[in-house]
Amino acid sequence: INIILTKDNNSYRSFYNALLHEGYRDLAALLQDGIPGVSSGNRRSSMDGMTSYGQLKTILCEGGVPQRPVVFVARPKLVDAIKKKLYCLGSDPGWVIVYGMAGCGKTVLTAEALRDPQLLEDYFPGGVHWISVGKQDKAGLLIKLQNLCSRLEHDSTLSQRPPLNIEEAKDRLRLLMLRKYPR
């Protein structure tokens, strides 16, 4: 904690998101009130309506989007291909699935595509919710689904208990996606 406190606000938010996404919701809840720079309302810059760099970082951090790695190799053609598919969601809602062998750069490319402020502002005004599933046993998958339900229901007036099993979590997520987050 002392090391994190010597860093910038993004380090604190990243630590909070790591706790939240790795199944330490109780610890994350203790830190929630102290999250710096998290806005629940208007995320747009008052100057020109565009999302500022700081706001962009906050939106991505809140959604759990991985940060750019220290060693980063730009691959603009592949990033543009992902962005093009994400832009298609504006006229035809659905899913964009990025797949490939382990270690080929799926996460880095997709996270880089989401760093486009215009894409976020026009097509994902409520932010994004990043989930890394990978190979999980049933207990690990249930924890990830419970965390996602919690994140998506954060502004709900009804505080629901976490889903007790994978089927219940899938049903709740299906309803959330259809009713509350169709995009």
TrEMBL record:
SUPFAM superfamilies: P-loop containing nucleoside triphosphate hydrolases. Residues 77-180 form the NB-ARC domain. Coiled coil: none annotated. GO terms for biological process: apoptotic process. Pfam families: NB-ARC. It comes from Oxylabes madagascariensis (white-throated Oxylabes). GO terms for molecular function: ADP binding. This is APAF factor. InterPro entries: NB-ARC, P-loop_NTPase. GO terms for cellular component: cytosol. The lineage of its organism: Eukaryota, Metazoa, Chordata, Craniata, Vertebrata. The gene is Apaf1. It comes from the Eukaryota.
